[in-house]
Amino acid sequence: MTKRELADAISNAMHMPDRATLAAFALDPVTAFASNPFARTSAAAVKHTWTVQAFEFPVRDIQAAGLSSLLQAVSALPGTERLMQEILRAGPHTLNAFYHGERREIVGAVLYGRPHVPLPVFTSSAPTRPKRAQRASAAQLDLFAVEA
Q1: Are 98 and 85 in contact, with CB atoms under 8 Å apart?
Q2: Residue 130: pLDDT above 50?
Q3: CB atoms < 10 A from the CB of 76, how many?
Q4: What is d(CA 148, CA 146) in angstroms, rounded to the nearest whole number?
Q5: What are the boundaries of each domain within the chain?
Q6: Secondary structure (3-state) at 50
Q7: What is the rounded CA–CA span in Å between residue 59 and residue 84?
Q8: What integer is the mean pLDDT of 36-59?
């Protein structure tokens, strides 16, 4: 699977609220595939590994995106369900993505960093509508005004 194919598969995974951030990381030019000794795995192994990480990450002050949706997705699968894993890295950040091999359908993905390192922020490359200039009427109530 190429970086583009992985990013597209992540973008199409509507059950993942963080899919835009995860896909943007996968497409970032500095992100590269990493060594992957366990490319073939099972839903049970993924669930076990990432359930432990869900407890360890907050203790070690490691930020993560996608972890809760990954755990929810693998919990719904039979433990023997075969999955494929892709690992991408850029600097202190790593993305682990899990998918059904033949269908290349993303089950879940997690982006995380090292302790005390915030997750990268990506700006949307989607075109946005130009905003209309809105003028507030003189009679409009300012909810945040502070009276002295």
Answers
A1: yes
A2: no
A3: 11
A4: 6
A5: 3-112
A6: helix
A7: 28
A8: 94
